[in-house]
Design brief:
Layout (H helix, E strand, L loop, with lengths): L32 E4 L10 H9 L4 E2 H8 L3 H13 L3 E4 L10 H13 L2
Antiparallel strand pairs: 1-2, 1-3
Length: 117
């Protein structure tokens, strides 16, 4: 007989404290990079402390942090926004996708470099 998967004892919506929107969530994307920027602020606990301790050794994306915390990305966004608002968490935008290379420009550059010989 297999054991059923373990469920969170606290529903994910409790991490948001019943809020529908968090301040500063416009800057947060699932690929936003999070890292601890300062000491943990007083007055927060639970998931806030877990997220802060998780990113203290090194940066993680919001989606990776959500997976480690076993929270939905939407709930983790609230937790990260709270920490960022208090200065305990630094958020960096995701690295944009590379644009296609202009082949004509690359060929002219290569020709110019060859001419320097």
């Amino acid at each position: 007989m297999t054991t059923p998967p373990r469920r969170r004892l606290v529903p994910a919506y409790l991490a948001t404290h019943g809020r529908a929107a968090a301040a500063g969530t416009n800057a947060l994307d699932r690929l936003s990079v999070l890292h601890a920027a300062a000491d943990f602020p007083a007055g927060l606990g639970g998931e806030h402390r877990q997220l802060w301790e998780l990113v203290r050794p090194g940066a993680l994306t919001l989606a990776e942090a959500a997976a480690h915390l076993r929270l939905p990305v939407s709930a983790t966004t609230f937790v990260a926004a709270d920490l960022a608002e208090r200065g305990a968490l630094a958020v960096r935008a995701p690295i944009p996708s590379a644009q296609p290379v202009n082949r004509d420009l690359a060929e002219r550059l290569l020709s110019g470099l060859r001419a320097l010989k």
